[in-house]
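Quick start: what a row looks like.
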Amino acid sequence: MLKADWEKTGEILSVGDNVIRAMAAQGLPGRDILSHEIIAGGCANLNINVSVAGRNRPVILRIYIRDSSAALREAAISRRVAPEIPAPEFLYAGAYGDYRFALADCIEGVTLRDVLLDKDEDPLCAVHDAGRYCALLQKHRFAHPGHLDENAKVQAPESPPDFVTFTNECLAHPFIQSCFGAAKSGRIARLVEKNRALLPDAKQAFLVHGDYDPANILVRRDGAGWTVSGILDWEFASSGPWLWDVSNMLRYSHLLPPTYEGAFLEGLVDGGVTLPPGWRVTMRLMNITSLLWLLRKCADGDRPRTVADIARLTDYIVDWLDSPQAKAG
């Protein structure tokens, strides 16, 4: 979370109980608010589990710290992808003072990330589910790429981004130069240029989740093992190349058993996706672009662990792109 986000979150928490109850009551008039508890882990928003009289399940009060337009956008996307994709059902979206918030039905489950970190569990069925749902997003297309407005419609047409130009602009940023140095920056620039032909078609206009990651995928046990119960956090959704979500989901796959990537890819295929030639190179080039964008954001705040993580990931990616594996596609 950026410094400004922390400060805004602190403002809400300093007011505390009264504001939280007022927001919940606005969306659920006449219902008694029994209790509430902040959910750890939010980066761009504050999530609060709220117990309400007369409901079997709690609701999630989601306060939008960074982007107030995301409340209505998430609600609109949820309606669009249901019922094929298990996104949260939004019950209400409103404003209280300077804050935009939403109430969503609570989905039962734990994050796929937590299950993956538990070495005693085997969540491959859920990973397969995640691949299949990722493939289903390709059914949702737009007229052109771009950011989505509050109604989940593409804003005014934008010129497709030039990935090479954007990469070079990031590499020239003073903060990135201070983190990477000239040698590493030059190596990244050469590898991106060398593989220019495998960069994604920026004119693609599929619904992209934008943060398709095990931390945003809820899973639960059923008779057959783990299954996906919910896909959360659609505030970064956009229209663009569908491989963005694949690259995000597989960003750390080199640190997991090969069965993780295999199960996800099987899910993609079962969902009707055909991966293009050289997709592994494309995926890693896209991850470099994402990581450079994130690293540039780190210049606005004190996030040494994020910077160190990005440094490790980019070292791995550039080494892989220079390896025989990359040449084999």
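That is the whole record. The chain is about 45% helix and 20% strand. The domain at 3-105 is CATH 3.30.200.20 (Phosphorylase Kinase; domain 1).
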